[in-house]
Amino acid sequence: MSVLLVGTLDTKGAEFAYVRDRLTAAGVPVVVADTGALGEPAFAADVPREQVFAAAGASAAAVKAAGDRGKAVALAAEGVAKIAADLHRRGMLSGILSLGGSAGTTIGTAAMRAVPVGVPKLMVSTLASGQVQHYVGTRDVMMMNSVVDISGLNRVSRAVLDNAAAAMAGMYQHRRAGSVSDRSNVAPVAHAPGSPSSTPGSPDKPVVTATMFGVTTPCVEAARKQLEAAGYEVLVFHATGTGGRTMEGLVRDGLVAGVLDITTTELADELAGGVLSAGPDRLTAAGLKKVPQVISVGALDMVNFGPPETVPEKYKGRRFHQHNPTVTLMRTTPEEMDRLGKEIAEKASAAGGPTAVMLPLKGVSAIDAEGKSFWWPEADAALFQSIRNWVSPDVEVVELDLHVNDPAFAAACAGKLMEMMRRG
User: What is the spatial order of strands in the sheet that 293-295 belongs to?
Assistant: First the structure.
């Protein structure tokens, strides 16, 4: 198994040779993939650019002749992602390391996002101190700030690249020592869902994912403890957009035995243009993979914005709660709750696996309770009635005269999911 070193050898050949040599000196096998296109490579790669572009259905010679840098970057990213995924499938990949500016980061992280969580991924980038969500996606990509541009070897760049090589070598040796499973990723459930292992820390424990927000923490924490006591491994995702997308990705990857989707608040941000949307595909992966799921309506009373001045003008006059100086929450209206209820009902009804919707009739968040700032019974009633109106008879709807954070509601949600997982 080798570390895949992904780079443009026409523009950054000296830097990649330096990192390659540092890794080799540390006893790390290296496979270099050349993703350059326009100039001649500084040295011969193990995976030449012809192979990279062929994986994307293109010719390296044609790409060079076209002279279109943007198109070359897109094709290189596509090709090296396929190569990385293939190396992983064949058990030949123990990590990915890359260096670059905007183009190199686009290419290198494409390869990283193509392999599962758990495979070491390190991107040394001029963009690492800025907004990196586009590059990281839902994978465990580590971004290291290059400090100076990756253009020549100097006292700063050598120090950064030395650390990058040492970090990758450390992760490689750690895995080789057996501290991490040689499967190089989070293991899929390889047993009947709902048959939890009784061995603490066992990798064979069935995985349950859950969604949480600060305002639903008591519910999710109580449910997590109940599930863990029953032998499940629970992965909790903060419902901040990235969290929901990451959870959906793990479900699609076949790593999850059950989904406890208590906090569906990201749907409200998608509807109203908040900053924590997980996109239109939120609440679909479990249904497509036929994974048992319990859906609730946690924190659907709110849409997230930044400081007050960032709230769109069209929402002036709405009900707000200042969560902290940088987070402004906007209360969803009865009309919005009606639309959210229909969306949840339709997505639940389309699910191919066991699905239940749990409704806490006394409030959906910590600030949606009698006497709290977002208490609006008519809005909540619109949500509940919309779900009743649109949901399929095949979906079980459980209505409880409880608040979302009542211990009894958490116990009911965890119990319902375990019941569905045991049935398979």
Answer: 233-238, 207-212, 258-261, 293-295, 355-360, 396-400
Query: Going residue by residue through the chain (424 aa), what tens digit of pLDDT does each one get?
Result: 899 999 999 889 999 999 999 999 999 999 999 999 888 899 999 999 999 999 999 999 999 998 888 889 899 999 999 999 999 999 999 999 999 988 899 999 999 999 998 999 999 998 888 888 888 988 999 999 988 778 788 888 899 999 999 999 999 998 887 644 444 455 444 444 445 544 444 567 899 999 999 899 999 999 999 999 999 999 999 998 888 998 998 899 898 999 999 999 999 999 999 999 999 999 999 999 999 999 999 999 999 999 899 999 999 999 999 988 888 999 999 999 999 999 999 999 999 999 999 999 999 999 999 999 999 999 999 999 999 999 999 999 999 999 999 999 999 999 999 999 999 7
Phi, psi of 243 (to 5 degrees): -60, -45
Whole-prediction pTM: 0.73
The whole-angstrom separation of Cα 403 and Cα 134 is 37
